[in-house]
Amino acid sequence: QVQLVQSGGGLVQAGGSLRLSCAASGSIFNINAVTWHRQAPGKQREWVAKVGGSTSYADSVKGRATISRDVAKNTVHLQMNSLKPEDTAVYYCYTNIYGTGYWGQGTQVTVSS
Fold first, then answer.
1. 35-49: string of b/e by CB count within 10 Å (b at 16+)?
2. How do strand 107-112 and strand 89-97 relate by DSSP bridges?
3. CA-CA distance, 11 to 39, in Å (whole number)?
């Protein structure tokens, strides 16, 4: 059983930065693609960023977000800079291992204007 435990997030002013973390049990996490998603109130969950063989980002965060791995700690980070009020959402990490999807518990990010 894989568990994804998220940390980080919180309340930040527009223009500020936050780092979200997603830690997993099991080293297989280090060779799996991991994605970050977010869901704003009243909206569908949307994909934000991916780390696998390479990294990729949604247009809405490109240039402001950096996804990275800490292999030694089985952790994936999402660094968000120049935050905007529209970045306010619950952020989730996700990975799929052998056909089973695993979600983190979600982390609230609130950006005040």
1. bbbbeeeeeeeeebb
2. antiparallel
3. 16
Q: Give me the helices (H) in the chain, please.
A: none
User: Smallest Cα–Cα separation from 80: which of 9, 23, 27, 26?
Assistant: 9
Look at residue 31 and give its three-state secondary structure. helix
| Per-residue tokens: 14 | 């527009």
Residue 72 identity (one-letter amino acid) = A
pLDDT digits (tens, 9 = 90+) for 1-15: 789 999 999 999 999
Question: Which position has the token pair 């109130």?
Answer: 41
* Backbone CA torsion sign across 101, 107, 108, 109: negative
pLDDT tens, 63-84?
Answer: 999 999 998 889 999 999 999 9
d(CA 113, CA 49): 24
The answer to whether 95 touches 104, Cβ cutoff 8 Å, is no
Tokens representing residue 27 in the block:
């080293």
Place of tokens 């869901």: 39
